[in-house]
Every structure is written in C-alpha cells, then in structure tokens.
Amino acid sequence: MQQFLNITLGGLSQGAIYAAFALALVLIWRATRIINFAQGAMAMFTTYLALAVIESGQSYWVGFAVALAGGLVLGAIVERVIMRRVEGGPELNAVIVTLGLFIGLQALAAIIFGATFQSFPAPFGLRGFTFGELTVAFTPFSVFIIGSVLVVMLALVALFRFTDLGLRMRASAFSQEVSRLLGVRVGRMLTIGWAFAAVVGSLAGLLIAGGNLVHPAYMDAIIVYGFVAAVLGGLDSPAGAVAGGLIIGLALSYVSGYLGSELVTLAALAILVAVLLIRPKGLFSKIAERRV
User: Fold this and answer.
1) Which residue of 7, 130, 255, 279 pairs with 267 in a disulfide if CB–CB is 3.0 to 4.6 A?
2) pLDDT for 85-135, tens place per residue?
3) Exposed, middle or buried by CB within 10 Å (0-12, 13-18, 19+), for 292?
4) What range defines the domain where residue 266 resides?
C-alpha cells in the first residue's frame, strides 16, 4: 500500500511538471498555431541564466525572476527575428525552423555554460512529508510545483476567455488577414504569444531543474512527455494540458514502478498513438469550428 501511495504521489508531482511544459505548448499553439519544438531548449537556456545568477551569490528567487524575464525577452526575440520570416508560409517551414532552434540553442548553451552536469537548487525542502512513522514521496517542493501549475492554468484560461488581449491573440492565430482588417495588430499579438509561452516554458524548466542536475539536454525527455500530455489533453485546452500532464505522470509512474523504468518511453509512445487514433483532437478539446 505504501508503495502504491508513493508511486501515485510521485506520479502527480512529475505529471505537474509535464503539465507545465504542456501549458507552454498550448499557449503558443493557441496564439500562433505553431508547435514550438524549441520550447524545451529555450527553457533550458533560461534555467542556465537562473543558475548563473544564483551561483553569483543572489537568492533563488532573484534567479527565478531573471529566468522568467529572460524567457519573455527570448520568446519575443525569437518571434521577431526568426519566426517572423516563416509565419504565414507552409506549416512545415515553421516546424523545421523550431527544430533548428532546438539544436542551435543546445549547442550555444554547451559553449557558454558547459556540457557538464550541474546541480540546481530547489527553493523548498526535498524531504517527503512524514505522518507518524510513514514518510511519503511528496515534498514541499512538490506542493510548490502543483500550485504553480494550477496558477498558470487559471491565468491562461482567464487570458483567453475574459480578456481582449486573449481574443486578439486567438483571432490573429486563426486568420491574420481578417484580423488586420478588423484593426488587430497581428505582428504584436504573435510576439506577445511567443513571449508569454516562453515565460511558461521557463517556469517549466525551473520546476524540472529544482533539486536535480542540469545539462544542455536535460529537457529532452520532458519535451516528449510534455508533447504527449498536450496532445492527450487537447492542444486548445489549458485545463486539458494539466489533466493530460497528470494522466501521463501517473501512467508513466505506474509503468516505472510496477513494470520497469525501461518501458516508460514505450508506454508514452503507446499513449500518444492511441490518442491520435481514437481522439486526435485530445480528450478535452471541444472546438469543432471557430469564428473570427
């Protein structure tokens, strides 16, 4: 029973991390209709910025703020300088450019920060809570992870449902020409979408790195599992991204705990294939058509 409890709690905590990354993918998809395969590399880069700040003697929270601000700037620069060249063209062009960004940022991080493993601190304790004689695999940092993801999810829901900015971002993503005729500054909306998504991605990078070792490729596995979570929940649904992340986290935790960690990647692939075959829009997607 204790093993099941620890596996479940560990799965929830890990699933919240997948959900954070899936939220970044959902945000940029809703804002620009592009799947950003460079999201993980951008998050890795801003995590290194936070680590550099912390190692210079500043507190964790200063590094945390620098990483989020760095993500905001990096996302805006990437859209303005690179993605703007391929937006409006064939969708495959944008995919190839994001894959190139992924490789380029990893190489640049290895040159600037080094390719060795480095320890990244956590802002809260990593020791599991104790109830009597029972210690569970759920830490104060796990509470922080889940709380952060829920706050981001609610913020995204509020942004897209209740604000003019969110409406303009969605309109720009679906029909740039019509949006321009309606007076929407499409270029600015796309830049904001990339910047916001990079901030959420940076948060995911920090949550994943907390209490672990970081290196230029430490986000690679998260990219796969976060993408599966986003597809499972529905690329249009922030709540679906969180639900998808938690489902993936729990499923992979059970597979790892009872069947073997070597089957985790295969299980994620099986889930992705099953979702694409049975419900390609995702479990929580309700959108059949849109009006702009």
Assistant:
1) 255
2) 887 777 788 888 989 999 999 999 999 998 889 999 988 888 888 887 777
3) middle
4) 1-278
